[in-house]
Write a structure and sequence with these properties.
5-stranded antiparallel β-sheet; alpha+beta; 2 helices; 5 strands
C-alpha cells in the first residue's frame, strides 16, 4: 500500500487539457486576415492596413496601408508587400 502511494506521488501530473479557443500563432494569423492590422518591422517602421495575404515565410501583403516612422505618418500606399524576415511582430488593431 505504501509503495502505491509513493508511486502516485512520484508520477508526473498530466498536462492540463488545452481549450479549443486557445490562441495559437496559426489561429491568430488566420483571424487577422482581411482585418485592420499593424505590422512592425525590425527597423521600427510600422505599417497599418488590411492584412490581405501572408505565406509560410511571413511575407505579408497589405491593402490601404499607411507607413509610420517614429510614430509619424510618412506615406499612404494602396498595396504593400513586406518581406517576412523584416517582420518583428503583427498586432490586430482594435
Amino acid at each position: 500500500e505504501k509503495m502505491s502511494e509513493l508511486a502516485d506521488k512520484a508520477a508526473p501530473a498530466a498536462p492540463a487539457p488545452v481549450a479549443d479557443d486557445t490562441l495559437t500563432p496559426s489561429t491568430f494569423l488566420k483571424s487577422v486576415l482581411g482585418r485592420p492590422t499593424t505590422v512592425t518591422l525590425t527597423s521600427g517602421v510600422q505599417y497599418t492596413g488590411v492584412l490581405s495575404c501572408l505565406d509560410g515565410y511571413m511575407n505579408i501583403a497589405m491593402e490601404q496601408t499607411e507607413e509610420y516612422v517614429g510614430g509619424q505618418l510618412k506615406a499612404k500606399y494602396g498595396d504593400v508587400f513586406l518581406r517576412g524576415n523584416n517582420v518583428l511582430y503583427i498586432a490586430m488593431k482594435k
